[in-house]
Amino acid sequence: MKYEFTIFGFGISAKITSCLLARNGFSVCLISDKDQKQEISNTNLVTFLSRGSLNYLSSMFPKTKQFEEHPEIDSIHCELNSLRGNKPQSIKFNDGEKQNLGKIVKNTDLEKYLDQEIGQLRNINIIHGSYPSMVENKKDEIKLKLNNGEEIDTDLFIVSSTKNNLADLISIDFIKKDLKKSAISIDINGDIKNANCAFQKFTSDGPLALLPYSKNEASIVWSLKRDSKLLHKDNEELLQIITKHLSEQVSSIKMTSNEKHKLQFVYAKNLVYKNTVLLGNIAHNIHPIAGQGLNLSIKDIALFVNQIKKYKSLGYKLNDQMVLEEFEMKRKIDNTAYSFGTFLLDDIFSSNNNFVNYTARTGLGLVEKIKNLKQLFIRSATGEDFYKAL
Ligand SMILES: Cc1cc2nc3c(=O)[nH]c(=O)nc-3n(C[C@H](O)[C@H](O)[C@H](O)COP(=O)(O)OP(=O)(O)OC[C@H]3O[C@@H](n4cnc5c(N)ncnc54)[C@H](O)[C@@H]3O)c2cc1C
Description:
FAD/NAD(P)-binding domain; 33% strand; alpha+beta; binds flavin-adenine dinucleotide; 10 helices; 8-stranded mixed sheet
């Protein structure tokens, strides 16, 4: 079979990309790397979708207005405990004039919505439970041979699966590092003092975030060293410890689910190799400390689709190398800054060294005082400038 785009993967990034390309009239083959019976994810993970990502998705998918009832996050409050027992240093993004910074959305809700969209688009063909066993990157197209024997010719091959290691087949180098950390994601309901505020406390065990997605429901994400005893506490004990840390933010909370996630750092040195493009976590799997992983991928996808549309209308081929190189170059700085920046931030804020702790407190104090600097961080995290320039 011949398609303009073939996408391998079945996560949020693969689904957003398929829908956007199909909506623009392209023929899309979506190869799911999941067993068909397990295609509906059942994770309790949530995503802080920045204002930029949300506005972009709402303009592309008008029905995402279903997230309208989610509370707007209008402030982000970070608090850093001192090793010396001084008063905690805190920083509030947006405590002055309130503006929408984004919303917290359950990943399963986003996926369910995307599945419905995919179901309505006739130019997406889904191949279930398969993977490419041979990738032949020719000058003007790609030939794929799947493990079930099926053969596909495609103008562009988009890799978005982190499950099967395609690295040897696609000739792209990755920087990979085991962060030796795991995150617990806990769903709670109870009394949330301010459902419009995302709160992050840098405890000596690691960053603990409270992410409200309704008036009385929130996700708690705690990134911990992999040898942390907290990872082995029973639910009741863990909830007690968390309630103590978040006593000013929540009360009477009940845990509805608890999951563990191994944290790994992955950074692809290139997003493009000949007629292959990487989109999603496969291109940059970053620490969740700044809540930017999916937001970065949505920026990549938005720019990619825009470039393809723009240059196609000017008569360029879909896999014109100049077009693909321009896409890669335009995303390099943002992706590199967030990938390595979040890596460093986590190291600094979870350090038990007095000097590093003092420096981090001083740094936070400075950012808190300099209004323009704070505004710069907000503009970057909301993706405002990026989407304006798109
Ligand atoms: C604790 C935590 C909190 C986060 N918070 C935020 C946030 O607030 N804001 C934000 O923007 N981002 C956040 N992220 C990142 C965000 O969840 C990811 O960027 C996003 O889910 C990646 O989607 P994806 O489709 O690109 O990749 P993936 O979800 O990795 O999916 C890619 C493909 O890989 C396959 N796959 C991967 N692993 C497996 C497996 N084990 N078994 C079967 N198939 C598999 C899937 O089927 C899919 O086809 C967070 C991540 C974590 C771990």
